[in-house]
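Q: I'm writing up a methods section and want to include an example of the input and output format. Could you take the sequence below and give the corresponding predicted structure tokens, formatted cleanly so I can copy it straight into the document?
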Amino acid sequence: MTIQALKGFKDILPDEVGVWQHIEATARGIFQRFGFTEIRVPILEKTELFARSIGEATDIVEKEMYSFTDRNGDSITMRPEGTASVLRAFIEHGLQAKLPVQRLYTIGPMFRHERPQKGRLRQFHQMSVEVLGLDHPRLDAELIAMGWLILEELGLTTSLQINSLGCPACRPAYKEALVTFLAERRAHICEDCQRRSQTNPLRVLDCKSSHCQEQYVNAPAIIDHLCPGCGEHFTQTKASLDLLAVPYAVNPFMVRGLDYYTRTTFELITDALGAQSAVGAGGRYDGLVEQLGGAKNMPGIGFAMGMERLALLLSQQNAKACPEAGTDLFVAALGEEAAVLAFPLVHLLRRKGMTVAMDLEGKSLKSQMKQADRAKARFALILGEEELAKGEAALRDMTSKEQRQVALEGPKEALCAMLIAAVAQREK
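A: Here is the clean output for your methods example:
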């Protein structure tokens, strides 16, 4: 019996990788334009990090984390999201002392023990960004606009929903109103919501039960309970999005699934992936750095995008085509003498930046031309006994099938330059 991948863990096969590379390259280019630098953090962290940051009453911590006790007796968790790890590194390595504002991004796998479905796996990949040290509402709009630009340059169509979750000053009055509302409906909501209505009332609004969501249609909205400071921050954030011509809708019941959010929260939504509608989401988390043992009053904001969902959307929507992977040149060497000449030539071309393929077994010309087609080669250089006797090779355009002779005599550098120029001319 063959061994298969674990449930919820998926291989990304060679014919899929090009889409992923296209997404990553697009995002990295945009991150650079906005002044972000990359940070790479471990997959394993102390469980306490996520319990303190995400919140013990969240679904992620209660039900979904991959946690275990290691040989030293420590509780270890495979990271379920990226923000907590980046902030731990930010604090541990004193990054707040190096720049007044840090703009960081990370790309990598996350792990949650969920029910696998379209666009949701147990090992999934995220691109996440964090900005630490600035709380101006224009930053909130700039970050949201950056996420919008990534999707725009990928050719994807989504919609944007935003909300404000207020701050510690305005949360108590809202929680009181929400608890009163929930108490009146206690008999009609699930056991998790009943428990959370006492321990962490905001979490009930994130319940996945459609029955519970029906009960919350008329729940009090936090944006009606914002303190003056949070109200003004939200107003300026919306005005800044208007300045950037980023369309949005206010969703007063969006709370996200993490406890650390304050003020601005947002989701980039699609209707093309069924229940998994969010392809990107994030928000402000002022106070989280201090909560994890870092500097006081250190503001922060970030978002994450799901790579699997972006790849699915690219395959479903009329998105901009990904750059087609291919080979610049296929060298077809027929016979040992030709192979001895071609082998170092191929290596030299690769050193100069060309993508070159060569059959190393000396198969027939027909077989090698089929290989060139499978490799999506733009050109084929054919070297056989007849070509060697004439001191020239046949350079075939694999699209037009036009063919011309190129001289083999002289230094290899000159032949390389000619081949590189031929490919470059074809690309124009």
